[in-house]
Design a protein that fits this description.
The structure holds two protein chains of two kinds. By secondary structure, chain A is mostly helical. In chain A, 79% of the residues lie in helices and 0% in strands. By secondary structure, chain B is of the alpha/beta class. Chain B folds into two domains: 123 residues, Sandwich (Immunoglobulin-like); 179 residues, Rossmann fold (3-Layer(aba) Sandwich), CATH 3.40.50. Chain B is built from 13 helices and 14 strands. Chain B has a six-stranded parallel sheet with strand order 11-10-9-12-13-14, with helices on both faces. In chain B, strands 3, 4, 6, 7 and 8 form a five-stranded antiparallel sheet that branches. A three-stranded antiparallel sheet of chain B has the order 1-2-5, with no helix packed on it. The longest helix of chain B is centred in the N-terminal third of the chain and has 35 residues. Chain B is elongated, with a radius of gyration of 30 Å. The chains are: A mainly alpha, B alpha/beta. Chains A and B meet through helix 1, helix 2, helix 4 and helix 7 of A and helix 1, helix 4, helix 6, helix 7 and helix 8 of B.
Chain lengths: 208, 419
């Protein structure tokens, strides 16, 4: 029973979901929406679980004075501060522009996130440098295509040769789009196959 | 425990629904945008054209349009009626004299008409998506000019009827074929236990190598299941792979680190890893605190994982699941620590980053097939064979579609179009 009940639920819900994609009738759509609302409810509950887990793990690391324990003080302080600002007397307007909560968000969290995102530019350069080394015929082809596309996307490219933008457009619209669509068809078929394995209870590595 | 099981089942049922809901939301958003844009300029708000031609237009008396068709929108939940009309003759005689058409609706022919939508002058059709099933409605079209307006005659009654089939026969046919081929191969595999051949995937062969290397070096293994929750199929696929990775890690006695960016993902990962440790008979080696939640924030999560990589220096990094811009930041940081890196995602735009920065990459469908391949269970491998047969059908459909298109016949294309 411990195994059969979850498998039965997965089967019923999986088949129901497939069927709802072909039945527009309101009773079925309403039932589907109700199940999705249940999922949202569970997600909300797990947000609290995650916050508690974060505080507990950091607290333990702090208690044990494990390596780099100082960082956990900063983490716990940041967590407590944002919780305080969100729940204290400003709470009804916590998301209003200029509120203490949003002040911290826009002046601390947002710049930190932007900094992490900006790293992408440097990492892209280093990854491209390795990827475009012409070690074999395929890599040489990739290098040539990359050079053409890069020149076609910047103003200096058309200054060197007016044909770069149109060659770039052709590369992106035909060989690139065809390859992408091929991968996408494979992804969808893989998804159907995996879903069937789970609906039929063949793939249950997560619950044996 | 039961709550978690229910959560898992809900995630599975939500996989396709989420995708369809996303597309539907996009379509609705575009429709709403197209419908509301012209309505933003009312006759009163329209700037007065002071040129002689503009002054002439203000003197034109707009002639009424005429409703030509009023019918239930097919294949829907009974919440929409399609209206078509012949545009006002004034559009031809004095172009620019009509600003927009307002679609008016009432519950009876003599009842009070209220606006349900508006269209620009170029349009002569409208779908009223605010109707209730099995209820009668009467419609009128108002042509709005610069200084005058004209109404069509009242048409009706129209009734929207709830349908039980959305008419996507081509999609249904393909889904049935795919499922049938997979089920047939499951049946064949059950009869010929242990005799199913599936092409080996190099990235999966490297799993043992990566975990073995980490064990020899006395370092940990890092596993990242992507940035989405368990309602995403890629995360579910990642959990299937995690079960096999955790089995190997438990067998070798290596430490498994798994930072999560979703609390539910963490919860499911803990259950999965715990079950794997139990399967290999080492339940005491399982450390719950090694699978922990960091943050839901995308770049906050990246910063946290990068920090773990730089401090713990894991010898093998697995990035399997749904990734966005964080893919390259994670993979390049991992590369700088000298770890063996195996990635896999179905996010098509992130694949080049993983291919460039990681040692092995599971491309698209390989991510979904990985769990079955690693299990070496003939029945699960049979589903991959069935999937390949479906793939062959798609190749045939594409070739036939090309031939039909080259011949100038749109029938084949139309049959596969989804509205």
């Amino acid at each position: 029973m411990r195994r059969q009940l979850p498998l039965a639920i997965i089967f019923v819900m999986g088949v129901f979901t497939i069927v709802t994609n072909f039945i527009p009738a309101k009773p079925v759509a309403d039932l589907n929406q109700m199940f999705r609302n249940w999922y949202l409810g569970i997600i909300t509950f797990f947000t609290f679980l995650g916050t508690i887990n974060l505080a507990r793990v950091s607290g333990e690391r702090l208690k044990e004075k494990s390596r780099d324990w100082q960082y956990h003080i900063i983490l716990l302080m940041a967590l407590a501060t944002q919780l305080f600002l969100g729940f204290y007397k400003w709470s009804p307007d916590a998301l209003r522009e200029g509120s203490p909560f949003m002040y911290v968000y826009f002046n601390l969290q947002f710049p930190l996130e932007s900094t992490m995102y900006s790293l992408l530019a440097f990492f892209m350069t280093s990854a491209s440098f390795r990827a475009f080394r012409a070690r074999n015929k395929e890599a040489l082809l990739l290098l040539l295509a990359a050079v053409v596309v890069m020149l076609g996307r910047v103003p200096i490219g058309s200054s060197i040769w007016h044909g770069f933008p149109s060659v770039t457009e052709w590369l992106m619209s035909y060989p690139n789009a065809a390859a992408k669509r091929g991968i996408m068809i494979g992804i969808d078929l893989g998804l159907i196959s995996m879903s069937l394995r789970m609906i039929l209870g063949i793939e249950r590595s997560y619950m044996q | 425990m039961i709550l978690k099981r229910i959560a898992v089942s809900l995630s599975v049922q939500a996989l396709r629904a989420t995708a369809f809901a996303g597309v539907a939301a996009l379509v609705l958003a575009l429709g709403a945008s197209a419908a509301t844009t012209p309505g933003e300029t009312s006759p009163e708000q329209a700037p007065a054209d002071q040129s002689p031609a503009g002054q002439a237009l203000t003197q034109v008396t707009v002639l009424p349009p005429e409703i030509t068709s009023l019918k239930d929108t097919p294949h829907d939940a009974g919440t929409s009626i399609d209206i078509a009309w012949q545009v006002s003759p004034s559009e031809a005689s004095a172009p620019g004299s009509v600003l927009e058409y307002k679609v008016m609706r009432a519950d009876s022919p003599s009842g009070e008409f209220a606006e349900v939508g508006a269209t620009p002058t170029a349009s002569s059709t409208y779908s009223d998506g605010t109707t209730l099933p099995h209820r009668q409605y009467w419609y009128r079209i108002d042509a709005i000019g610069l200084t005058s307006s004209a109404s069509s005659g009242v048409a009706g009654p129209a009734v929207s009827v709830m349908q039980w089939y959305n008419g996507r026969t081509s999609v249904l046919g393909l889904v049935v074929f795919c499922c049938a081929s997979i089920l047939i191969y499951i049946s064949i595999a059950r009869r010929k236990m242990g005799k199913v051949f599936v092409r080996r995937i190099p990235a999966l062969d490297a799993f043992d190598e990566a975990i073995g290397r980490a064990t020899e070096m006395g370092k940990s293994v890092l596993y990242v299941a992507g940035g989405l929750d368990i309602d995403d199929p890629q995360t579910v696929a990642s959990m299937n792979i995690l079960a096999r990775v955790a089995e190997k890690v438990a067998t070798y006695g290596t430490r498994l680190l798994m930072p999560c960016c979703r609390a539910m993902q963490m919860s499911m990962a803990r259950e999965t890893v715990k079950e794997s440790y139990l399967r290999v008979g080492k339940p005491d080696d399982y450390k719950e605190e090694d699978i922990r939640y960091l943050t839901d924030d995308q770049f906050g999560f990246v910063a946290g994982v990068d920090g773990i990589m730089m401090r713990e220096r894991p010898a093998a990094n697995f990035y399997l699941g749904a990734f966005y811009a964080e893919s390259l930041i994670l993979a390049e940081t991992g590369f700088s620590t000298g770890a063996i890196q195996i990635a896999g995602t179905a996010m098509i735009d992130q694949l080049p980053f993983f291919v460039a920065a990681c040692d092995y990459t599971l491309i698209g469908e390989e991510l979904y097939a990985a769990g079955a391949s690693l299990s070496e269970d003939p029945v699960q491998l049979g589903t991959i064979k069935g999937q390949d047969v479906a793939k062959a059908l798609f190749v045939v459909i594409i070739i036939v579609g090309i031939v039909f298109s080259l011949a100038g016949n749109p029938l084949f294309y139309r049959w596969f179009s989804v509205h």
